[in-house]
């Protein structure tokens, strides 16, 4: 599982003068004839081996690179079970080695640079909300992190409650109730304080609240505006009978419904912008490819099921569905089996956002659409 701490650690990495190796390898579902994960790793590492022997680099840099290669070979000697991608950031000379699993395949690549190459990792992670689930009860509170398909408990808070009101001590019944309310208020305030700290550190994107049917509404009333804005749903659960798996499923359903709702909203925004003529937008694969060729895509929406062959220009990065020579530079175009894949990577390289659209929307027939950074010049007629 990827934790926020791990992502933060990768973002803080620096070779401080030594080269950092960043490696991305897709882990694809089993397919006959595909090259194996290990073959891909070996060929990527072969690509940087000459650099580790290059005498124009200083000795410490070469040594660090050579150690990185050995370490990568060793730690990636087995194919991971889960489809997606593996990303590794290494700089042996600074004792840096971070390996993360990503939930979607990325293009395979290896980069040696003074800083880790994090953009593909961030583009993938950016698609998923990190959810904080708080399970409340009068005297207890559990704070869970839900991310991708994983959940882990971050904190459990237990406060004093009046479990057995001691009538014998002479407390009137109202006074007992008032005392209990006061304790639960104090408890809720403490929980809110914890949540505020977590959200203040930007550890989470969204909040889900669960608990007994008689506690959840009370707790929701305690949520200050900033946390209420992050709340995407609540649910009631019987703490006596619910298993951790039940709770996890309830949270994940709320998180995924919310993600689907945002995806539908984005498609709606793109189609609306197209109809209104502003802000600049693209609908359909041809137009989106042309926009990406010009680095105009701010947010790309690609239907989850979209796939289509296409062509790319290796000189200037033009993308199109078909053609023999590049309309921009005249070079011959190279055929690729999936142009959506090339489109996604181009948008990532240009600093745009990617959104895969999972529910069925109008985008299913258009395949792709985008919110653009600027108005596009007319698309040249397909050359060749
Ligand atoms: Zn070209």
UniProtKB/TrEMBL annotation:
Gene3D superfamilies: eRF1 domain 2 (3.30.420.60). InterPro entries: BaeRF_family10, eFR1_2_sf. This is Peptide chain release factor subunit 1. It comes from Streptomyces violaceusniger (strain Tu 4113). The lineage of its organism: Bacteria, Bacillati, Actinomycetota, Actinomycetes, Kitasatosporales.
